[in-house]
Fold each of these.
Amino acid sequence: QNGDCFFTCLYPNCKLEYSTQIIRNLISPILFSRLLIKIQQEEIRLANIPNLEQCQFCTFAAIVDDPNERIFRCLNQECLKETCR
């Protein structure tokens, strides 16, 4: 996959990826939580969703259908920033 949040088997010629359950058992809960956020962001990026905009300050994303809308308003309660599109 494209991204630094997927872990491929270490054996030569093996293209399989380790499951999230295996990774969860190998790293700290805080690191695993951060990894899940990165995996989610990568999957959203790979989905290539039309009109999807992402907050420049956090991981919140939303579809903005109106091309005339010049301001992106983050709805993440911990962020709530407004930025130019």
Note: The radius of gyration is 17 Å.
Amino acid sequence: MKNARKERNPVVIVRPLDPAPTPLEGLRGLSELAFPFLLHSAQLGPQGRYSFAGADPFLQFVSHGTQIEVWRGAQRQRFEADPFVALRELMHTYPMASAVETPFAAGAVGFFSYDLARVIEDLPQETQDPHPFPDIHLGFYDAVVTWDAQEGRALITSSGLPLRGRAGQEHAAQRASWLEAQLRRPRGSIPHSATPTEMTSNFSREEYVAGVEEVKRLIGAGDLFQVNLSQRFTVRPRPDGLELFERLTRVNPAPFAAYLEGPDGSQVLSASPELFVRVRGDEVLTTPIKGTRPRGDSPESDLAQAQELLNSEKDLAELVMIVDLLRNDLGRVAQFGSVTVGALPTLSSHPTVHHLHADIRARIAPHLDRFDLLRAAFPGGSITGAPKVRAMEVIEHLEPCRRGVYTGAIGALGFDGGVDLNIAIRTCVAAGDTLTFSVGGGIVADSDPASEYEETLHKGRGLAKALGIHDF
């Protein structure tokens, strides 16, 4: 049994990387490989400590509704299944011991599209997406580099998967050396791409304001309490995603930033300030954000903006509403009595905006797991509304196209059982000849339609600045 256990649970190789490139330099070193990624804590703080990167996954998991594709190199397996069940079964074939030196030593990295919600709930089918993306796209990475900003060090972890036993140990050593060599490759400059010259929204100002008025009418009729309404911007020509991500992390650093390369040459880049869910063992953390104010031009005006947000009864009411929704979501899979809420509200300040947030913690019930948690909590309540299902029905009716990656989740599921996923806001998708990004806000009974429209613009200015668009 002891030898069998070693076969099932490979021991992770851990190597220091010293001297180490920066996370962005490391990403550039990996950028010519297959499906590189960087999960980057570009804004350090209580939630922003680690960054992770890798490339060349040994497997890809892709789902469209209940149609599943599993790629092992050029070999494709196709079947129909519930994507959460299929992903659980697949990840269970690659169990791995935890590495105490890093919260993510190896595992699946990618995105969960907002439209995965259609697998969870029976939603109307009123819209389409001109650039449809998979509901789930994950690469399985056997070797990862971790940067620990708090300790000022970097290290490589290598699992040897999908091999096991002695062959796995040898493969782990080879892959660790390979990853280090890729990270240390000479890094050329990224070609400068053209600044976008055309930007259009799927809403005019008048249409967005009318959408807010319709949400307020539904709230007044007792249909629901809150809806997150968003607009999508499309820019042309498509800029280089890697160049844009580097600019974005300078202009708008965020604790849950991410860069991914997806199918057909697409790129997903995110400067998200919001944690969707983190799992360590059976402990769960989710941190919803509600309420936004722009940063001030001076210390005095900045403090005034922050204080106005903290004193806003409307924004606090929105946050409390979403906290209650998420407590209910977690309660469906949590141990009885384990759901707790931290200080409410808490102010978080970012380069372009202030937000309010709350920390909600729980413990997963012994007979359930992280996939049950994802099904119960996805998509995040802060970007749908309350009640969640009715809010998603209204979103489907009012928004002109499907959301895709926006307001889904981006991040990692470790082979050791961990989860780190952001809420995919402040997120761009480069596909075909265009780049798109969306911005939205929570609409409640006393929302002012014109102010809600302006709030979406405040949220999008960091992205617009990184794109070189200064009159956004």
Note: Residues 43 and 254 are 5 Å apart (CA to CA).
Amino acid sequence: MRRRLLLALVAFGLACLSVALMAAYAQRADERAVAGREPVRVYVAAKRVAAGTAARALRDDGLADLVVMPASTVPADALTSIGPAIEALVLTAPVERGQLLMRGMFDRMAVVTGGLSVPDGMLAVSVPVKLEGAVADYVRAGADVTVFLTAGDPEGTGPSPVVSATRMATRVLLSRVRVLAVGVRPVGSEAPEPLDPNNSDATVLLTLAVEQDDAQRVVLATKTGTLYAALLSPDTWVAPGGRVDTDRLFR
């Protein structure tokens, strides 16, 4: 009798513990669901904002609005406030109206040299590309591009390989570089000369921000072959040094 009573008490205790654990789990699940639906105030662009605009101006000049969004839909990098840590930073590229503002869009103000904003520690180098090589004039200042070089492919090995006149190769010259300016700025003008989209032979000057080694490579490349630019999205990764030659074009 005493043994049956003890077993009954143990079973009752286990049942109560199970109920308590289930209730706690359900409560935590409810809390997580509610947290995902909690409103969060984040900044979005109120209008198109140019690159170089300070975060302080976005906040104080009505260039950005605080809107309410569910927490579960907001990226971790979204701007929920503009305080001392970020207000002196500037946009590194233009943003469109309604675009969510992210912390990664801002950086320190670059040094202005000769009328062009050049990032610290970088060189500004201009390279000529044909209109089709400038993505049909869709490349804009602030964009990131990959630069390809097409030139004669060296034949043989040794210190002085012969460059083939018929066998061509295209290589990745620069995996990702920032475009500082597009076109030529006439003397006394703040804007570059407009391009004629009907002229397929038009040459576009892309001014790129590069380090010294890349500057030397790209200057030499302009003398040895043809350059071609490709626009990049923020998440695009291009393997450095990739190449295709005429022997492997269809392989």
Note: The CA atoms of residues 168 and 246 lie 6 Å apart.
Amino acid sequence: MDNKKENRYNFSVFEEKPWGRWDLLDTGLGFKVKRITVHPGHRLSLQLHNKRAENWIIVSGSAEVTIGEKKLTLSVGEHVFIPKETPHRLENKEKDELVVIEVAIGDYIKEDDIIRLADDYGR
């Protein structure tokens, strides 16, 4: 079960996940900014979003990123844009935690806009 903390507006400000956690940094009309921390040896589900695009900026560690059929390795200071409806995954193959800033942009940016295509944790 995911650990969540909600604020007075009834949305999560952080969630513990089997792969690490995310923390909400800011949100507004049509955008959401999160800090994503991925534990060593873990990865997020292969997923897509129908109503939002995402930008990932690597701030600590090294990430293996899957976008569609492409795999990229990104280091601190590098970033990638993920269009809506595009399968994507974030993976940490290193010994230290991976930290990514995610900027989601779209008409609908709630956490239920997710389709998991493959998941290591059976969700």
Note: The two ends are 10 Å apart (CA to CA).
